[in-house]
Structure formats: structure tokens, C-alpha cells
Design a protein that fits this description.
By secondary structure, this protein is an alpha/beta fold. It contains 16 helices and 15 strands. Helices cover 47% and strands 14% of the residues. The strands form 5 sheets. Strands 4-3-9-10 form a 4-stranded parallel sheet. Strands 5-6-7-8 form a 4-stranded antiparallel sheet. A hairpin with a 4-residue loop joins strand 1 and strand 2 (13-16).
């Protein structure tokens, strides 16, 4: 197994990846809250971990990849009062909350399928794990790190911090959090502003609600991931991922909950994908500076001059390292499209190349190792793509006759490109799609030729001529002979 180094957000450095169980990896990624269409920031985050998942599988690990769906709803910004996002959407559209959940879960899956994502091993839902969440709250209460007030239960952050380090993942200090937090106005049930909800009492108008030992209510936002990750991956697992915006407070709270319940740190490696901007500015619907994934496919956005394929957009996203900020712009997408097409064209050219007795001055084995070295350095996809284009240049030189390649090296280039372009980066094989299209076209034309032959036997020359003329108009020429009819596509 090759040595793989991953940047750990907890230690703020790259560390050699050593899974808990040899050959097995447990990976949990925080999934979407399904109350609206999936946005491009979600796509970038989940694409980053789709790439991680793909590469771990390629290295030979048996990966249990868990990506949850938040369908229970929670108060906006983890506040004490207000509406949860799913119930708010249900109220506006006058439908049941679970109709909202179903609609946007389907949209989430459809969008990710367009971008050629692999399906996770398990995709649990928050509503399917209410019992597990209640049991965790009981444990935290029994250990004295939570308190119940008027049907709500809160985690005592200040007590936890006396013996632990709340803020270790985000680098925040409890003293600064206290200093920067307003004093409670007496209307909150919390002891301290820093405390977070484990369970919230449901007001009469709150739609999503469940029975509990503390009354009718609903779980806190941070609790669901602790319940689902530990259920399917154990009390300590290998990788936990999500967007940079989840580092505080969501992931910080997950650590605190798990530390109290299990007595140990829940995760060995914390990974965070960075944010997206559009034309150098933060994406925001309020300012009109935003774009939805489907806009790329239709081109119906003021920010785009044309439509782009899902493969092109995926290629564009992976040209930036997952930990770096990525800026979308029409010009950047156009440039990326040229590179994407060039890469795919080179793979097509490979099928037409003639091999020689030896390879010119291009070390194929060293190039292959460079591809692995890029991915083994914290999944450095932009460096990998740069390495791929070095062999694209060589392929074109062989095509032009200025370089030669041996049969053995030609096979190695082909297999290595297939691994990194399709298996690891997850780009779709345009050439394969074109070949499938040609096969379907061939079957269709042969069916029309058979229909034309039957028309001629039945002396229906009007239909026979119509088939021939219309095929000719779209560039498909028929040629009759005593042995039958053959066709040529211009």
C-alpha cells in the first residue's frame, strides 16, 4: 500500500494516513439539509470527498463511506427561537415537511448523478435515528455535562472546557467566545450563551416533533451526526469531512459530545473543503451573485455565456485543491472547457497510435509515479492534472511523428490515464459515450434500411424514397447492390 499523507484540520499539518483497521477505512461526511435545491458549494464539497473515496478505493482500501441526509430540520443558525428550515419551507409551500424532504433529496441525488458521483456505502437520515440521539442525550445528562430546562436539554460548554479543550478544531478559545458573546437577556433557558441544544422543546406551531423523556420536541443540529457516525463507524473512525463552514460550531460540538459519551476523540483525521466565490465575490442570492448547478447545463444565467457539460464543470472544480478557495467565472470555465476537451481528445488519439520498438525521451514509469505522488500529497488534484497534461503533450508528439512510443509504454499510458482520469477524478468518458451513440445510430439506420426494403417489396416506393432522402439530408448515404444495402455516415 502506498504512503498517503492527509492534512488534518485538528493538528493543522499533513499526517501519514494509518487507518484503524488495516485495509478498512471509515469515512463520514456531513450531508445536506434538504430544504432547497442543492447549491454549487455543496457540489464542490461532496465532489472533493467523492474524489477521496475514489482514490482510497483505487489504493485497495475497503471503504465504508457514510454521508447523511439532514431531514429533521433545526432552528436557523442553531438559535433558541424561530422556525426550522424544512418546516418553514413546508409552511410557505403549504405541503407536508416530508414532501419538502423528498423533493429536495431527489434533487440532491439527481444533481450528484449528473456529475458522476459514486453512491456512498450508507446514506442515513436524521429522522431515522431519533432513538439513537435520545440515548446519547441520556448519557451526557448522566455524566453531568448537560442540563434540562423546560423540556429542552443543553450541553454545558463551560463545564466541558474545564477538563477539555472546546475549540481545539477551529482554534478558538473559550475566553474569546465568552468575550464576543452578548449577555443573556433572561429569555433564554441556557445557563451560558456558548451552550448548545441537544434537544429542543417543540412549541405548538412546530411541525416536526417527537416524544422524549423531556417532552415533545426535536433534536439539536449537532447531535445527529454524532449519532449516525458512531452507529455505523464506531466510537473512533478514520476520516470526518465537510465544508469549511462546519468547522465551528458543528464539528466542534460533535467532538465535545463524543468525548463525553465515549471518553475519546471521535475522529483521527478531520478534513474540510474550502468555499466557493463567483466572479471574486461571495455567493449570495440577496445580491444576485449566485449560480445553481442546473444553470451550467442550460446556460440560463447572467453569469454564463453558454452551457457547459457536467464533465467540464467537474474538471474545472478539481483543477483547484480542495482546501483552497475556488472562484467561478465564465472566462475560467471557458478556459477549463478547452483543457477538458484537449484531455479527452488525447485519450481518443491513444486508440489510433502506432507503437514503435522504443519510446522517445519520456520516462513513462516516472510519469506514472508523479501522478501517484500528487494524489498521495493530500489529494493534490491540480498537480495531478498538470501531470496528465505532460503526457497529453507527449501523445500529440507521437501523433505528429516527432516522438515514438513502445507497445509496452503505450499500454501503460492508456491504463494510467484511465485510472486517474475516469476512476480517480471521476470524469466521464466522452469517447465511450460517442461509441455508444454510434452503436445506437447504427442499429437505428439498419432498422430503417429494413423498413425501406419491406416498402420496396410492397411497391411502396413513396415511403422507400422518403426514407432514403431523409437519411441523406442528415448525412447518411445508402448504396444499393445485389448483396443488399449498405450505408455511409458523412
Amino acid at each position: 500500500m502506498r504512503d498517503l499523507y492527509i492534512y488534518n484540520s485538528l493538528s493543522s499539518k499533513k499526517e501519514k494516513f494509518v487507518p484503524n483497521q488495516q485495509g478498512h477505512v471509515g469515512m463520514y461526511v456531513c450531508g445536506p439539509t434538504v430544504y432547497s435545491n442543492v447549491h454549487v458549494g455543496n457540489v464542490r464539497t461532496f465532489m472533493s470527498f467523492d474524489m477521496v473515496y475514489r482514490y482510497l478505493l483505487h489504493l485497495g482500501y475497503k471503504v465504508r463511506y457514510v454521508r447523511n441526509i439532514t431531514d429533521a430540520g433545526h432552528l436557523e443558525n442553531d438559535a433558541d427561537d424561530g422556525e426550522d428550515r424544512i418546516a418553514k419551507k413546508a409552511h410557505l409551500e403549504k405541503i407536508e415537511p416530508m414532501e419538502v424532504v423528498q423533493r429536495y433529496t431527489v434533487d440532491f441525488h439527481n444533481t450528484l448523478n449528473r456529475f458522476n458521483f459514486l453512491t456512498p456505502s450508507i446514506e442515513p437520515t436524521a429522522t431515522g435515528h431519533i432513538i439513537e440521539q435520545i440515548e446519547i442525550i441520556k448519557q451526557i445528562l448522566e455524566k453531568g455535562f448537560a442540563y434540562e430546562v423546560n423540556g429542552s436539554v443543553y450541553f454545558d460548554v463551560l463545564k466541558y472546557n474545564q477538563e477539555n479543550n472546546y475549540g481545539e478544531l477551529s482554534g478558538r478559545k473559550i475566553e474569546d467566545l465568552i468575550h464576543n458573546t452578548r449577555t443573556l437577556d433572561g429569555q433564554s433557558d441556557k445557563k451560558n450563551p456558548q451552550d448548545f441544544a441537544l434537544w429542543k422543546r417543540a412549541d405548538p406551531q412546530h411541525i416536526m416533533r417527537w416524544p422524549s423523556p423531556w417532552g415533545i420536541g426535536f433534536p439539536g443540529w449537532h447531535l445527529e451526526c454524532t449519532a449516525m457516525s458512531t452507529k455505523y463507524l464506531g466510537k473512533n473512525f478514520d476520516i470526518h469531512g465537510g465544508g469549511m463552514d462546519l468547522k465551528f460550531p458543528h464539528h466542534e460540538c460533535e467532538i465535545a459530545q463524543a468525548e463525553i459519551c465515549n471518553g475519546n476523540s471521535p475522529v483521527n483525521t478531520w478534513m474540510h473543503a474550502n468555499m466557493l466565490t463567483l466572479n471574486g465575490q461571495k455567493m449570495a442570492k440577496s445580491t444576485g451573485n449566485f449560480i445553481l448547478p442546473n444553470d451550467f447545463f442550460t446556460g440560463e444565467s447572467k453569469h454564463l455565456s453558454k452551457s457547459f457539460s457536467a464533465g467540464c464543470v467537474r474538471f474545472f472544480i478539481l483543477q483547484a485543491h480542495y482546501r483552497s478557495v475556488l472562484d467561478f467565472s465564465n472566462d475560467a470555465l471557458l478556459a477549463s472547457e478547452k483543457g477538458y476537451n484537449k484531455l479527452m481528445e488525447s485519450i481518443r488519439i491513444l486508440e489510433t497510435l502506432n507503437s514503435s520498438l522504443k519510446t522517445s525521451d519520456f520516462n513513462i514509469e516516472a510519469w506514472k509515479e508523479s501522478c501517484y505522488n500528487a494524489m498521495n500529497d493530500d489529494f493534490n488534484s491540480p498537480i495531478l492534472i498538470a501531470e496528465l497534461f505532460s503526457v497529453v503533450k507527449f501523445i500529440n508528439q507521437v501523433k505528429d511523428g516527432t516522438s515514438t512510443v513502445s507497445k509496452e509504454d503505450l499500454d501503460l499510458i492508456t491504463s494510467t490515464l484511465n485510472i486517474f482520469v475516469f476512476d480517480v477524478l471521476g470524469l466521464q468518458n466522452m469517447n465511450q459515450g460517442a461509441n455508444q451513440y454510434k452503436e445506437k445510430l447504427k442499429d437505428t439506420v439498419e432498422l430503417l434500411i429494413k423498413m425501406r426494403a419491406e416498402a420496396r417489396i410492397n411497391k411502396d416506393f413513396e415511403l422507400s424514397d422518403k426514407i432514403r432522402i431523409q437519411l441523406d439530408e442528415i448525412g447518411i448515404q445508402l448504396k444499393d447492390s445485389k448483396d443488399g444495402t449498405i450505408f455511409k455516415i458523412d
